[in-house]
């Protein structure tokens, strides 16, 4: 069969022959892949930099997707850490890590939306208490996951939804998705901090997709500009597009009731991740979310890899 194959962590995947898999284990099912999302997590898997990387090569990347099994059923699936990922004509899924999809739904839409949408859905449902009316700030709101976070927060009945990012044009599109305020981070750090301080005095939860220097700066600003310094603030670390480490200001922890938690594979169990998927799929199929997606043939995987880091759209590979 044809697949996107990583033979070295220094080069992008190539479209080439790969041995067709067998599905022999209990609960294993061979599926014809219809769509597989090219998420940042997949880029990190393919260059060996993700924290789950085992260095095993060759590797077919892809952590989730939509496929049709030999039983004729359409499914969304999440793969375990495996060298045989979703970016192939066929893969092997564990049916316990899949959900059945209704006929007629769009595989490309589902493959594009599930990973970015589940980041905020899981964070707000499983890593904190987020009642309707609570206020959320999304740090790094202009990417696929940030845009979905704005919409998930709206669905969950958030009060204020403050979208923060550095791309003015993409930021300007977020009020239409539900953002009640936007804050531009630009080269003028002092002006960025002032805008953030003005907008975010009553925030209850931060969904952080950036980490690195912007997180350190934002944490200082938020901690020192609370309307009520006794109001708890939960900071949920989800992504790290601006750096894998950050400096945590000690004063932030001493001056306000600040709680820092992570949300992702490991800090949330596979069982808890799977538990949210049916409700999320239903919302995606119902058209609750605007999803910006670009389908690309699997044969064009090298071009997809070149485009992905600066693409405003979520690329989905279609075998
Ligand atoms: N833990 C989880 O459950 C989970 C699930 C999904 C995703 N994630 C993580 O969340 C992060 C975002 O994912 P994504 O799917 O949204 O990625 P994406 O679509 O590639 O978006 C990343 C966004 O970050 C912006 N950005 C990059 N560097 C920035 C900086 N220094 N300051 C401000 N904005 C910056 C980019 O905008 P520019 O145009 O300005 O560069 C882009 O809009 C990734 O780290 C991903 O691995 C985690």
Structure report:
The structure is a single chain. The protein is α/β, with parallel strands linked by helices and 319 residues long. β8, α3 (144-155) and β9 (161-165) form a beta-alpha-beta unit. Strands 3, 4, 5, 6, 7, 14 and 15 form a seven-stranded mixed β-sheet that branches. The mean pLDDT is 96. It has helices spanning 40-46, 107-126, 144-155, 168-172, 189-199, 212-224, 250-255, 270-286, 301-307; strands spanning 2-5, 14-17, 28-37, 64-69, 74-78, 90-94, 98-100, 136-139, 161-165, 181-184, 205-208, 233-237, 258-262, 293-297, 314-318. It folds into two domains: 2-115 and 270-318, Alpha-Beta Complex (Quinone Oxidoreductase, Chain A, domain 1), CATH 3.90.180.10; 128-262, NAD(P)-binding Rossmann-like Domain (Rossmann fold), CATH 3.40.50. The longest helix has 20 residues, at 107-126. α2 (107-126) crosses α3 (144-155), α2 (107-126) packs across α8 and α5 packs across α6 (212-224). It binds NADP nicotinamide-adenine-dinucleotide phosphate. NADP nicotinamide-adenine-dinucleotide phosphate binds next to α1, α2 and α3. GO terms for molecular function: oxidoreductase activity. It comes from Cryobacterium arcticum.
Which labels suit this protein?
seven-stranded mixed sheet, Quinone Oxidoreductase, Chain A, domain 1, 319 residues, 15 strands, six-stranded parallel sheet, binds NADP nicotinamide-adenine-dinucleotide phosphate, globular
């Amino acid at each position: 069969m044809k697949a996107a194959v990583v033979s070295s962590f220094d080069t992008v995947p190539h479209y080439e022959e790969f041995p067709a898999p067998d599905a022999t284990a209990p609960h294993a099912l061979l599926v014809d892949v219809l769509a597989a999302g090219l998420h940042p997590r997949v880029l990190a898997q393919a260059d060996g930099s993700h924290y789950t990387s085992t260095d095993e090569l060759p590797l077919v990347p892809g952590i989730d997707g939509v496929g049709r099994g030999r039983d004729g059923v359409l499914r969304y699936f999440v793969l375990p850490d495996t060298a045989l990922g979703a970016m192939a004509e066929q893969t092997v899924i564990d049916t316990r890590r899949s959900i059945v999809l209704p006929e007629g739904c769009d595989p490309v839409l589902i493959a594009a939306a599930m990973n970015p949408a589940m980041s905020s859905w899981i964070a707000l449902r499983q890593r904190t208490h987020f009642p309707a009316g609570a206020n959320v700030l999304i740090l790094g709101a202009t990417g696929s996951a940030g845009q979905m976070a704005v919409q998930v927060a709206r669905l969950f009945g958030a009060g204020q939804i403050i979208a923060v990012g550095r791309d003015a044009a993409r930021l300007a599109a977020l009020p239409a998705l539900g953002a009640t305020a936007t804050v531009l981070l630009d080269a003028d750090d002092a002006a960025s901090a002032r805008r953030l301080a003005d907008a975010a005095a009553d925030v209850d939860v931060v969904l952080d997709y950036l980490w690195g220097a912007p997180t350190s700066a934002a944490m200082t600003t938020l901690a020192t500009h609370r309307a009520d310094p006794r109001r708890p603030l939960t900071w949920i670390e989800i992504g790290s597009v601006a750096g894998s480490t950050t400096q945590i200001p000690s004063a932030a922890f001493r001056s306000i009731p600040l709680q820092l938690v992570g949300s992702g594979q490991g800090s949330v169990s596979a069982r808890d991740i799977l538990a949210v998927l049916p409700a999320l799929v239903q919302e995606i199929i119902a058209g609750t979310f605007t999803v910006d997606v670009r389908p690309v043939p699997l044969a064009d995987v090298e071009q997809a890899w070149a485009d992905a880091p600066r693409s405003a759209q979520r690329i989905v590979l279609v075998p």
